[in-house]
Amino acid sequence: MSTTTQMIPAAEALMLQSLVSLTEQGIASRVLAKTSGGNLTLFAFDAAQGLTEHTSPFDALVMVLEGSLTLTIGGTPVRATPGTIVRMPAGVPHALDAPEAARMLLIMLRDRQEG
Known about the structure:
Layout: E1 2-4, E2 27-35, E3 38-45, E4 49-54, E5 59-66, E6 69-73, E7 76-80, E8 85-88, E9 94-98, E10 102-109
Parallel strand pairs: 1-2
Antiparallel strand pairs: 2-3, 3-10, 4-9, 5-8, 5-10, 6-7, 6-9
């Protein structure tokens, strides 16, 4: 997975599609904003790509921008399409499959008490 960590500039309107490019047979991501309270990452998945099952200590929100994704959260498949948002609770195993090329925003929400 290719990752770019430079955050976006302030006070500038940017087209999301231009901030991360689809990678043939791959996954690309770019952190758009990062604070102690969480971060916002833009992902681009080529068709038939995905993320294997894992857990996170933080709640996360997935917002689908293009294409479709199947999120499996605690064993339950959830189909997400453009304009939808899905919450993945902290500590619950989840995975992601992209049956077609797709872009999404991932918002990680950290609890203030956590380091």
